[in-house]
Amino acid sequence: MARISECRNTLLPLIIEKIPRMIEAHLQDMERNVTNFQEAIGDMHEYAASLQSVFTTVAAMLFEDEEEYKKCIQRIEREGYEVGIYFGEVKEMNREVVLQLTHNIRMNSFGYVCDLINQHVHDPEVRSLLPSRFVNILNTRFYGYINGFLFAKDKMMTHLHNQKVLIMGQMAAGMAHEIRNPLCSLKGFQQLMTQMAADRPESMGDFLNYIDICIDEITKVENLVSDFLLLARKNDAQKNRWETINLNKLFKKVYHLSAYFVLEGSVDIRLSLPSTDIFVQGIPSYIEQIILNITKNSISAMDSEGILCVSLSPSVDDKQVVLTFTDNGVGIPKRQLSRIFDPFFTTKEEGTGLGLCICKRLVEEMKGSIYVRSKEKEGTVVEIRLPLVMP
């Protein structure tokens, strides 16, 4: 071991001097062979600086005595593990990029270091031991790095799985609850009708009334199941029905359809449309459903003095259409605002909690976005943005 320490003063400065070239060669290889490498790494200067620190530490480890060398090996494995967690959990780096990254680092650095050892170390035993140590150091860090990376990815996958199971459970519970209510009504009224038909044939009026109630309850179940199916799967067949839509005309049509809800809620709807027609590419029935859902939500949140302002306008950059619904209703409590798009989340006694969730689904399917701002006791603003197209 004394002979290794004798090489330190000569060889260590030469290795450290070569480190910038090793890093430069590594970065050039990665940029040439990995698509969007800079985007995956982020700050290239920070990454290069971290490699400089690692290579300097590794170079110094080559010349330690046996006891200190073993301690360094344990430490560098721990450090590699922490870096692996960082790249897997924080950077969310792709597995293939990670493998190519670590392989390239080892190959580049090994070539440079071995050349220096062969040129400047003449003792055969030392010339054999130093490359062996260098490979051991690199592999130890690599295995620590990979173990940390895999741990981070496994943790992430477990979290995503648990989130999916939780959401599925909530949806299943909500679906069961919403279906069970009308089914209980159906069962009860069918029992009454059976008894009436047997005991009181003259009570035909009540009998027909119960039939109407049963039909209404069946319709609720049908609508709920339709909404659920629309929410649960992508309706790829609908893409064939995309067309260029004149939003001015569609808004006027839906405005008249909303008359029933306006009368029922005794509120005032104020429609503001631009003087020139605005067009989007999408599915008319989707946009009608979105407008009606949001209109109903707004009306139900206001009292008899309520005002709903609906406006349509192009965005500042003329790339999007902005649909805005502004009401002066009760507003949404801050603690509930983050959950309004969750399936089956509702604050209404008769609501299913699918309306806004479906609106978001339909808007995003048409390459748009939906935002909600609200303040309790002041009102709510719903803003929808869709890509603007030329007629």
How far apart the termini lie comes to 81 Å
Count of helical regions:
12
**How would you classify the helix and strand content by structural class?**
alpha+beta
How helix-rich are the residues, as a percent range?
A: 55-70%
Lay out the secondary structure.
Layout: H1 2-33, H2 37-41, H3 44-61, H4 66-90, H5 95-120, H6 124-199, H7 204-232, E1 243-246, H8 247-257, H9 259-265, E2 268-272, E3 279-282, H10 284-300, E4 307-314, E5 320-327, H11 334-337, H12 355-365, E6 369-375, E7 379-389
Parallel strand pairs: 2-4
Antiparallel strand pairs: 1-3, 3-7, 4-5, 5-7, 6-7
Helix pairs in contact: 1-3, 1-5, 4-6, 5-6, 6-7, 8-10, 10-12
Task: Write structural notes for this entry.
By secondary structure, the chain is an alpha+beta fold. It has twelve helices and seven strands. Strands 1, 2, 3, 4, 5, 6 and 7 form a seven-stranded mixed β-sheet that branches. α5 packs antiparallel against α6 and α6 packs antiparallel against α7. The radius of gyration is 34 Å and the shape is elongated. The termini are far apart. 24% of the residues are buried. The mean pLDDT is 78.
Properties at a glance:
391 residues; 7 strands; elongated
Give a brief rundown of this model.
This protein is an alpha+beta fold.
